[in-house]
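Lecture 7, part 2: worked example. A protein chain together with zinc ion.
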Amino acid sequence: MASFDEWLDAYDIVYRTLPTSSDLRCPNCGHPTLRLVFTAPPGSEHGYASFWCDTCLEGIHLSRAPIPDGVGARLLDVPAEERNRGIPDYRLVT
Ligand SMILES: [Zn+2]
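Predicted complex, written out as structure tokens:
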């Protein structure tokens, strides 16, 4: 199982390729199915980052993540059901 630090390294790589999507492989299972979604208060440049793998359903959650230019964030003031659409209930690595 990949450690939090390994997930953080993967996050940095995926983050730096934004707004282009990355084909980086998951630090845990090796599949190129990593997903990154930002959620933020309206007008904020910082928010929460949900970063997970669609194959093994593990990942990390970061707060105060700067939202890069050209990347849309989901707004915190929309209903959770809509905000969390497409984000699976993945296992958080801590
Ligand atoms: Zn995986």
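The chain has two helices and five strands. Residues 33 and 55 are 6 Å apart (CA to CA). Keep this in mind for problem set question 3.
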